[in-house]
């Protein structure tokens, strides 16, 4: 039996949260521009989840139960977008309103006034809520190889 249990993403780095909960207090953001409190919530969730997955791995040693680490991989992409082939990390490719994050809740991707960037594969965020296909491909590769999945899916 194979079971892959994915953690949650660093939502404090997503354009929707950065736009809806933006603040003028620089201390609310980490060094990469993500909202600390939302990422702390994600990290806490993932820590508790990893503990439960570890417990299940011990309880059912004949089953392959893997923890897939969304958080670390996506946060690595936010920290070093160029290393992953991205030219933008906190801005939505498809949206409206421009601004720092190109996200406007009343003009999301697919709505009137929204437009997609010319090269989606150079962006981490597709629409401020979801990642781009290029980002999901890198995540899948990281899970399969084991860099971000414990144990590796392919082993």
Strand and helix map with partners:
Elements: E1 2-6, H1 15-20, H2 36-59, E2 64-68, H3 70-79, E3 88-92, E4 94-95, E5 115-116, E6 123-125, H4 133-145, E7 149-150
Parallel strand pairs: 1-2, 3-6
Antiparallel strand pairs: 2-7, 4-5
Number of domains: 1
Stretches where pLDDT falls below 50 for ≥5 residues? none
Determine the strand fraction and express it as a percent band: 15-25%
CATH topology: Rossmann fold
Order of SSEs: EHHEHEEEEHE
Provide the CATH architecture.
3-Layer(aba) Sandwich
Work out the number of β strands.
Answer: 7
Helix content bin: 25-40%
Class from helix and strand fractions = alpha/beta
Give the mean pLDDT. 95
Number of helices: 4
Q: Please compute the radius of gyration using only Cα atoms.
A: 17 Å
C-alpha geometry: globular
What is the gist of this entry?
With 155 residues, this protein is of the alpha/beta class. 34% of the residues lie in helices and 15% in strands. The chain has one domain: SGNH hydrolase (Rossmann fold).
Describe what this molecule looks like in 3D:
The chain is α/β, with parallel strands linked by helices and 155 residues long. It has one domain: Rossmann fold. It is 34% helix and 15% strand. It has helices at 15-20, 36-59, 70-79, 133-145, and strands at residues 2-6, 64-68, 88-92, 94-95, 115-116, 123-125, 149-150. The strands form three sheets. Strands 1-2-7 form a three-stranded mixed β-sheet. It is globular. The two termini are 14 Å apart. The mean pLDDT is 95.
């Amino acid at each position: 039996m194979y079971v892959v249990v994915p953690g949650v993403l660093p939502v404090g780095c997503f354009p929707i949260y950065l736009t809806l909960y933006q603040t003028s207090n620089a201390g609310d953001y980490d060094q990469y521009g993500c909202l600390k409190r939302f990422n702390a919530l994600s990290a806490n969730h993932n820590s508790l989840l990893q503990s439960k997955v570890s417990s299940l791995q011990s309880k059912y040693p004949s089953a392959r139960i893997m923890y897939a680490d969304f958080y670390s991989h996506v946060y690595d992409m936010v920290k070093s977008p160029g290393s992953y082939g991205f030219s933008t990390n906190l801005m939505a490719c498809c949206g409206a309103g421009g601004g720092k994050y190109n996200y406007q809740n009343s003009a999301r991707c697919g709505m009137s006034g929204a437009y997609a960037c010319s090269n989606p594969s150079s962006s981490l965020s597709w629409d401020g809520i979801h990642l781009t296909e290029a980002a999901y491909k890198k995540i899948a590769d990281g899970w399969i190889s084991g860099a971000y999945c414990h144990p590796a899916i392919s082993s």
